[in-house]
Design a protein that fits this description.
The protein is of the alpha+beta class. 46% of the residues lie in helices and 23% in strands. Helix 5 packs antiparallel against helix 6.
Length: 310
């Protein structure tokens, strides 16, 4: 029955952790009905005239330029519902700084363009549907949006180069954070079970400490009782390093090697058993995790959260 309850407890702890992770993921990925994302997906300087030579010129489509920047932009409907032209009180207009020029705008979508701006004509944009633009400019573009769209209060310019997507951030997190998180959780659970059974451990030591080596002493009876108590203790823990049969054999051999009439030898037996049970099962190292484990777990969780947010 105890093993069954222990299994149920472990299962509930595991399910609680999984549910917490799923809830957290659902919270940070929750979508609204209407949401547009204007993302800078790629950006690079294609050419730059920094030679200092007056006779060296860079010409693109009969236009002399000092540099040429390529930028890939993706406009995505990240909401749950479609956005149609009926929502467009004022179509989305994308503009750049006055000292910059659009040299080329490559897209399969309908646009109206000028030297410093272009307007996106949206008829219908379904959920998760995107419109891609590849623009060439004379300088690194500083993009500005102008629009009035029903149900969409703000379109955020999202630079994926400086602020990667959440899934990319997740996979970019150092695997050691997850190792510390899982290990500390398991170590904490193990420590809770270990410390919870201190009373049983005390009974085992009391049995050895209170042995009376007199004429009525029966080694077999004593070892049978010792076996019963240690087995109960061992079964109530997630795991032990010292096997019951091995422990009984060692204690039996130790009793045979001692002068049981000598008080000092009896104390040696107690210390031997104490050391074998506690140190052999790494009690001190495992029990400290009831304090250290939660601290490492919290630190690891905050580390993962920090990497996801920033």
């Amino acid at each position: 029955m105890k093993k069954f309850l222990t299994y149920i407890y472990k299962s509930l702890v595991f399910l609680s952790v999984v549910a917490g992770v799923i809830s957290f993921y659902g919270f940070i990925t929750e979508k609204s009905d209407f949401e547009l994302i204007f993302a800078i997906d790629e950006q690079s300087q294609i050419v730059e005239n920094n030679s200092g030579l007056d006779d060296l010129k860079i010409v693109y489509k009969n236009v002399e330029v000092e540099s040429l920047f390529g930028t890939k932009i993706i406009l995505t409907n990240n909401g749950e519902k479609a956005i149609s032209k009926d929502f467009m009180f004022k179509p989305l207009k994308v503009s750049i700084q006055p000292d910059n020029v659009f040299l080329n705008i490559n897209t399969s979508h309908s646009i109206t363009s000028g030297e410093q701006e272009f307007t996106v004509n949206i008829d219908l944009l379904n959920p998760n549907e995107s419109i891609e633009f590849y623009i060439l400019t004379t300088k690194k573009p500083i993009l500005k949006l102008d629009y009035k769209i029903r149900e969409v209060s703000e379109i955020v310019i999202w630079n994926k180069l400086t602020d990667p997507p959440l899934d990319q951030k997740f996979f970019d997190i150092n695997w050691l954070w997850f190792l510390f998180l899982i290990t500390s959780l398991l170590a904490t659970i193990d420590a809770i079970f270990l410390v919870k059974e201190d009373k049983k451990l005390g009974h085992i030591f009391s049995l050895i400490k209170n042995i009376q080596f007199d004429e009525e002493f029966d080694k077999k009876t004593m070892l049978d009782e010792f076996t019963t108590q240690y087995s109960e203790y061992s079964d109530s823990l997630p795991f032990t390093f010292i096997d019951t049969d091995f422990l009984i054999k060692e204690v039996s051999n130790k009793i045979d090697s001692l002068d049981t009439s000598n008080e000092l030898d009896r104390h040696i037996l107690y210390k031997f058993t104490n050391s074998l049970v506690r140190h052999g099962n790494l009690y001190d190292l495992r029990s400290i995790n009831i304090v250290v484990g939660p601290i490492i777990f919290l630190g690891s969780f905050l580390g993962i959260l920090y990497n996801l947010i920033f």
